[in-house]
Structure formats: structure tokens, C-alpha cells
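step=encode ok
step=design start
structure_in=
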């Protein structure tokens, strides 16, 4: 009995370490890995710790908060269910964040790990190097799933540890004296804070838009692993990797390697490639150079394969919920493949490396543009619950404005503008959450269902419109269209009522069903039940009763296509009486199966063609 109790505990502890390791390696992307060198060279050990601490803290806090969210509801899928609803209005932002992060990672390895080696011509080696990195990222991403990536990353960690051991053994005792190296710039002036405040803001909220971290937290919840403990270990391991890399930079500065620091645009010193240049300069130590380049490749590949798996998960989860009809015409394997996105990232990286831009130009987006979205996402996770819409145009404008202000401050050496640019999105989010009538900008699913039809953005009937019965002899018994809505009008009779005299509640569903059949007959007049290769089945039906009606009342049932994706069509219905009062509303979901074997199908092309004009 004692062994059986100990073994699961040991397994859970091992699982925490494995997940913590993959959390750390997935967060060691191009930004953290190379900017730790840059900030260390500029501001010494103080700069390294200032960069490292908020980075680690932001990662840990994300895990702890996710654990709290997951425990608000029971079940292993609680965090996945929360993420599906909560992330809905941020899907495009998640995608942009991942694209820029992966592009930055591709770019950083090419720009600071390969270009300093001086291989010529660039036109030959640059695309070949990018192709190697691209292929390696896709290969590892295809080989491992989110369930198995913790094992592959354990192997990568072993490789990284070996590289670190080789580097330390080759450098010897001088490596440990590097911690006392001076910095290029002072840490007591405004220029230092012009970096520190954006760094603290960007890294404290940054993980909230990283698909890789959400996918890991969700999987940990499914495996009943402590998310808080795993992220605590991951933050410590991540900090250790950055600390090692930063002290390497201090060692290089101690050794008189400042000649390798480049002066770039606006007179800023750029030192991200310092270590590659030092280790590859004559007389080069092949073991030292090889170990360092392998260290860089291991750190970068664990981010790229994580990004590949996360994008594939993201695309698959959203493909079935897409409302765009064009996606129904694209093969599913192409629609859910991360390869086109990876190729785009590689192209961006190659162009950036070819024209000689620096890492900081990518960083601006994480210190400004995404800050507002991250802060809003965090707030909406606790304040008003999962949202159905956010002020997209306003958020985009504020984010773009912050990017421009930060750029002006950076290029003009005015750190005040850098600070203001990072604070601007945060201030706007606070204003959005506290301003009067904030509900105009945010709507929860519950509020949307409870909203009166006259105020609904999808309501056909304007305020003040009165629906009256059609004149005798002019009523279209087969129904008619009003804009996107199909309308069927009739008179309730004694057969529709119950013993009290009001219309029986089940008749409303019958009326909706009849209107749906008339709608299908109107848009698909050639549909033949005996020859059709597919059947249309009802997946779900819901109806909210608003008011009652009675015998001989004129009733209008309206139905339209509300949304659709690859598999399902959602129909929306509303019911009114002759005075324009809403009697009820609701929706239903349809699916499609083969008429031969009843296997589920994608929406048939005949249905897409018929419904497209009314969606």
C-alpha cells in the first residue's frame, strides 16, 4: 500500500518538472534569448536582472492565474471551455501575436546566430539557412504533439545542459569573473527607465496572448498537473537560461570585446550578435563555437516546434467555428496546417535580416500594441465574464498610436515617449472598463440572449414598426423574404391552444419547424428526398418564450441563417404578433450526413450555394 501511494506522487512531481521544462523552453524565444545579451551589455548586471525578473514573474503569474481560473469549475476541461469562450474576440490578435513572435525568432537566429559568421554570398546562404531552420521547426512540430512535447523538450534540455557544460569548461575560471563587468550606459538616468518600464509592462502581461502557453496550461489541467507548480519551475529554469546567457555577455565585455558591438540606426549600440562574433573570431575554438551555436539552435527550435503545434491546435479549433463561407471551399488539411504561416514568418525574417533591421524593431509591438489587448483580456477574464465582442477598431487605433509614439521616442532618444507609449494602452483599457455605459463596448453571451429584439443588431423589425396581418387575398401562403429573413405569416386557431385558451407552448416549435421547411423549399426548390446524397438533421434547438398569444391572433415567424462553418449551420428565429410584440426567439443548429451511411459531412456545396445569399 505504501508503494502504491508513493508512485503516483512521484509521477505527478516528475510531470510537473517535465511540463515546467517545456514551459521554460517555449518561452526562450528570440526576444528573451538575444535581448538579454543586449540589455546586459548596455546596463550590466543590473540590466540583466531588470530584464530577467519581470520576465520570469510574468510567466509564473500567468500559470498561477490560469490555475485559479481552471479551479473555478470542476472537470479536466474547465480551462479549455473557458479559453474557447474567452478567446473568441481575441482570435485575430492571438494569430498576429504568434506570427510576430515566430518571425522574430526566425529572424533572431539568422541575424545574430548565422550572419556574424560571415558566409558569403548572402543571396545563397541566407535563404538556405532560413530553409534549414524552417524545415527543422516543421519537422519537430509534425513529429510531436502537445501530449508528447514534454518528452522531446526533456531531450532538448539535456542537449542544452551539455552545451552549457562545454562552454563553461572551455572558458574556465574567467567566465565567473564576468559578473563584475561594467556597463556601457548608466542605470540612474531616464534612458534606463525608458526601457525598463516598457519591459516590465510587456513581459508581465505578455504570456496572456501566447497560444503556446495557453495550450500547455490546458493540457496540464487535463492531466491533473498543478499548473502553478509547473510554471513556478518553468520560470526558474527560464531565468537560469537567461542568467547564463547574460553572464556570457558580461564575460565577453570583460575580455575587451566591445569592438564587436555595432552602431546602428539613430546611433544606438547593438550587441545581440556579440557572443557569436567573439566565439567565431580568430583564433576560433571549434568546440566553444559549436557548443554555443548548438545552444542557440536548441533554445530556438523548442520555440518553433511549440509554435507549430500551437498554431495547428488554434487553426483546428477555429476551423469548425468559422462563419466565412470561403473556408468551406478550402481543403481542411490546408486550412488547419501551420506550414503557410511558418513560411510567412520565414519570409519576414529573411527580408528583415537582408535589409539589416534589429531585434528592437520587432520588440516595439510587444511593449505597445499587444499590451492593451493583453490587459483587456485579463480584465475581461474576471470583471464581466467571457465577452462576445470588443471595440476592435478603437483597440487597433490605440495600439497603432502607441507603436508610433514609441518609435518616435526610440529614434529621437526621448525615453519619455517610450514610457508614455507603453502606458497609453493600459490607460485606455482602464478607461474602457470604468467609463459610463461601458456595456456599449462589451457584451456577454448572457446579455446578448437577454437583449430585447428591438435593440438587437440582427433584429429585422425597426423600433416602432407594427406588424399587421396581410390584407385578405394578398397573403403569400408559402412565405416571403424581408431582407435576409424568411417570413411566414398565419392565424392561430383553436387547434393551437390549450385548455386555458392560450397557445400551447409546443406549437411555437411546430411553427418554427414549418417555417423552416418553407424556407428550405424556397431556397432549394429542386431538393429531392429520394435522390439526395445528404440529409439535413437538427443538432440542437432552443427557444425563449417572451409573451403568450391566443386564438385568432395573426402570427409571423421569421427565420434566417445566423452563422455557419464547415460542419454546422445555425438558424435564428423570431416570432411576432400583429402588434409587433415579440412572442419569442431562439436558434437551432443543423448538421449534414450522408444519405447512404449517415456519416457526418461538411456542408454540401448545394446548401452553401442556396444559403449564401441569406447568411
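sequence_out=
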Amino acid at each position: 500500500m505504501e508503494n502504491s501511494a508513493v508512485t503516483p506522487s512521484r509521477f505527478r512531481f516528475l510531470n510537473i518538472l517535465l511540463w515546467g521544462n517545456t514551459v521554460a523552453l517555449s518561452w526562450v524565444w528570440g526576444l528573451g534569448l538575444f535581448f538579454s545579451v543586449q540589455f546586459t551589455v548596455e546596463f550590466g548586471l543590473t540590466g540583466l536582472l531588470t530584464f530577467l525578473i519581470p520576465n520570469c514573474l510574468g510567466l509564473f503569474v500567468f500559470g498561477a492565474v490560469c490555475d485559479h481560473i481552471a479551479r473555478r469549475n470542476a472537470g479536466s476541461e474547465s480551462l479549455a471551455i473557458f479559453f474557447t469562450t474567452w478567446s473568441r474576440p481575441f482570435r485575430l490578435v492571438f494569430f498576429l501575436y504568434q506570427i510576430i513572435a515566430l518571425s522574430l525568432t526566425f529572424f533572431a537566429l539568422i541575424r545574430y546566430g548565422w550572419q556574424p559568421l560571415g558566409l558569403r554570398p548572402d543571396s545563397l546562404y541566407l535563404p538556405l539557412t532560413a530553409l534549414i531552420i524552417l524545415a527543422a521547426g516543421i519537422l519537430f512540430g509534425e513529429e510531436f504533439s502537445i501530449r508528447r512535447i514534454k518528452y522531446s523538450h526533456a531531450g532538448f534540455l539535456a542537449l542544452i545542459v551539455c552545451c552549457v557544460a562545454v562552454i563553461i569548461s572551455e572558458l574556465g575560471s574567467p567566465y565567473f569573473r564576468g559578473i563584475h563587468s561594467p556597463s556601457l550606459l548608466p542605470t540612474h538616468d531616464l534612458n534606463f527607465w525608458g526601457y525598463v518600464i516598457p519591459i516590465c509592462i510587456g513581459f508581465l502581461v505578455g504570456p496572456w496572448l501566447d497560444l503556446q502557453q495557453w495550450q500547455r496550461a490546458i493540457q496540464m489541467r487535463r492531466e491533473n498537473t498543478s499548473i502553478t507548480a509547473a510554471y513556478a519551475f518553468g520560470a526558474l529554469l527560464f531565468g537560469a537560461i537567461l542568467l547564463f546567457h547574460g553572464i556570457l555577455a558580461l564575460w565577453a565585455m570583460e575580455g575587451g570585446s566591445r569592438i564587436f558591438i555595432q552602431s546602428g540606426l539613430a546611433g544606438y549600440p547593438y550587441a545581440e550578435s556579440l557572443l557569436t562574433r567573439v566565439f567565431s573570431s580568430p583564433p576560433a575554438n571549434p568546440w566553444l563555437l559549436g557548443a554555443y551555436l548548438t545552444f542557440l539552435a536548441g533554445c530556438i527550435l523548442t520555440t518553433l516546434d511549440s509554435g507549430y503545434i500551437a498554431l495547428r491546435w488554434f487553426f483546428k479549433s477555429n476551423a469548425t467555428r468559422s462563419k466565412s463561407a470561403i473556408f468551406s471551399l478550402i481543403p481542411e488539411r490546408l486550412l488547419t496546417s501551420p506550414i503557410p504561416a511558418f513560411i510567412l514568418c520565414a519570409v519576414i525574417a529573411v527580408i528583415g535580416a537582408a535589409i539589416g533591421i534589429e531585434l528592437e524593431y520587432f520588440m516595439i509591438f510587444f511593449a505597445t500594441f499587444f499590451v492593451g489587448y493583453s490587459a483587456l483580456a485579463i480584465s475581461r477574464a474576471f470583471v464581466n465574464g467571457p465577452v462576445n465582442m470588443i471595440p476592435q477598431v478603437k483597440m487597433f487605433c490605440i495600439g497603432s498610436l502607441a507603436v508610433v509614439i514609441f518609435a518616435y521616442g526610440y529614434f529621437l532618444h526621448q525615453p519619455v515617449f517610450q514610457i508614455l507609449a507603453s502606458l497609453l494602452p493600459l490607460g485606455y483599457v482602464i478607461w474602457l472598463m470604468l467609463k459610463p455605459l461601458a456595456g456599449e463596448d462589451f457584451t456577454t453571451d448572457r446579455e446578448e440572449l437577454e437583449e430585447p429584439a428591438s435593440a438587437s443588431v440582427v433584429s429585422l423589425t425597426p423600433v416602432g414598426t407594427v406588424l399587421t396581418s396581410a390584407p385578405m387575398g394578398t397573403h403569400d401562403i408559402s412565405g416571403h423574404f424581408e431582407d435576409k429573413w424568411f417570413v411566414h405569416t398565419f392565424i392561430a386557431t383553436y387547434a393551437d391552444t390549450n385548455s386555458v385558451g392560450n397557445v400551447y407552448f409546443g406549437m411555437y416549435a411546430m411553427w418554427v419547424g414549418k417555417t423552416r421547411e418553407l424556407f428550405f423549399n424556397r431556397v432549394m426548390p429542386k431538393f429531392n428526398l429520394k435522390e439526395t446524397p445528404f440529409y439535413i438533421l437538427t443538432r440542437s434547438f432552443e427557444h425563449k418564450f417572451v409573451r403568450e398569444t391566443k386564438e385568432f391572433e395573426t402570427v409571423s415567424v421569421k427565420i434566417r441563417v445566423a452563422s455557419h462553418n464547415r460542419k454546422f449551420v445555425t438558424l435564428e428565429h423570431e416570432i411576432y404578433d400583429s402588434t409587433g410584440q415579440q412572442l419569442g426567439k431562439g436558434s437551432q443548429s443543423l448538421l449534414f450526413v450522408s444519405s447512404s451511411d449517415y456519416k457526418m459531412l461538411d456542408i454540401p456545396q448545394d446548401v452553401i450555394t442556396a444559403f449564401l445569399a441569406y447568411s
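step=design ok
step=annotate ok -> The two ends are 62 Å apart (CA to CA).
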